[in-house]
Every structure is written in C-alpha cells, then in structure tokens.
Design goal:
Blueprint: H1 19-41, E1 71-75, E2 80-84, E3 92-95, E4 98-99, E5 108-117, H2 125-130, E6 149-153, E7 159-161, E8 172-174, E9 178-179, H3 182-191, E10 197-200
Length: 201
C-alpha cells in the first residue's frame, strides 16, 4: 500500500580516494582508536527518544466501520497520526507529538468538531494553574503554540494542531493535544471535514 510523507534513505556512492588520502587515513587510524574512549565518555546526556519513522501502516477496517467521512487514528505509542480519506485511496501517515504523561492523555473515539485557520491559543485552566505566568492568549503568528491550523475534537481542550516548535514532533511533549508539523496540518486541514471520526489509541 502506498503511504505518503515517509522519508526514505537514499544510499550514496562513496567518493573515490587517492593513494595519498588512503595513506593519511591509515596513519590516523591508531590516533582515532585511542581517542574513541574519550569521545564516548563526553557523549551528551540521553533525551527522550524521538520516533519519527518507527511506525507501520494500518488497515482502517481494524478500527472503523466505514470511511463515509474519512477517518483519523492517533497512535500514541508510535507517535503518529493515520489518515484515510473517503474511499481510502490516499492513505497518509504523519509523525506527531503526543501527551507528555498519562495525566494529560485521553483515549477513545471522538470526531472533528471545528476547523480553524491561524488559531488563537488560549491556555487551559490546568495550564494556568501549573504556570500562572503564561500569557492569557497568543494571537496567530510564529509564536503561537498551535501553529497555523487547529482541528478541535469533541473533548474540551483537545486538538490536532500545528506547532511553534518542530523539535516536539515525535516526542512526548504536549499537554494533551496531537501536534503536527505545520505543513502537515495545513495539508490535513484541507482533506478532513467537520464530523470526521477520530480514534486515539
């Protein structure tokens, strides 16, 4: 099955080396071998692993009764969002950010209830209780945490939206929402409709 938006590594042909370059590399090898333990000790501390491409394709029939209005499935473990349009002929998979902990996580069936271009971001009451220094609202623009598009879900405060920080994609990084690269959420925004079913697993 063809899946869009998956990056494939393309093998590159190694450059030809001259005899002088090969001799230099051979002479440098012992020094590099001695330096390797020191380099290993200076490795930066581990961060939460990203999971941009560690996902598999799914069959919509395992999760939805029909594609009458298309369908979206957010796989929190794989940190990806699957989209099937009406007819299922243009299946797409998008890397996403997901809730940072179970406290912020909601699973189950819902649907898209509202589509918003260039949304205004307003922190939730929980966010304000945790960090009272947050702004009361952030207008549309590059500093907006919801990026360029937002798809409201049937659960209060839960959205599928863009981001102002692409480093979050592929990570446990949100307060409950599903975050996408802005160019992906802009694409998805044009393909889904109000009423499209959403399943979060």
């Amino acid at each position: 099955m063809l899946v869009n938006n998956i990056v494939k590594a393309v093998p590159m042909t190694p450059p030809l080396l001259s005899r002088r370059a090969l001799l230099g590399a051979a002479l440098a090898a012992p020094a590099l071998a001695l330096a390797a333990p020191a380099l290993a000790q200076e490795a930066p501390p581990a961060q939460a692993p990203r999971n941009l491409m560690g996902f598999r394709t799914l069959d919509w029939r395992d999760h939805f009764a029909s594609l009458d209005r298309g369908a979206l499935l957010s796989d929190l473990n794989a940190r990806v969002l699957h989209f099937w349009p009406r007819g299922g002929q243009d299946y797409r998979v998008y890397p996403s950010s997901v809730p940072m902990s179970e406290e912020f996580t909601r699973r189950g069936a819902t649907e898209i209830t509202l589509k918003r271009r260039n949304p205004v971001w307003i922190p939730t009451p929980t966010m304000l209780a945790t960090n009272p220094d947050l702004p009361a609202r952030v207008e549309a623009g590059p500093q907006n945490p919801m990026g360029t598009r937002a798809l409201n879900l049937g659960w209060p405060y839960y959205r599928i939206h863009g981001t102002d920080n692409e480093a979050k994609i592929g990570r446990l990084a949100s307060n409950g929402c599903i975050g996408l690269f802005n160019h992906h959420v802009e694409e998805l925004f044009e393909l889904v409709e109000v009423g499209t079913p959403v399943l979060v697993v």
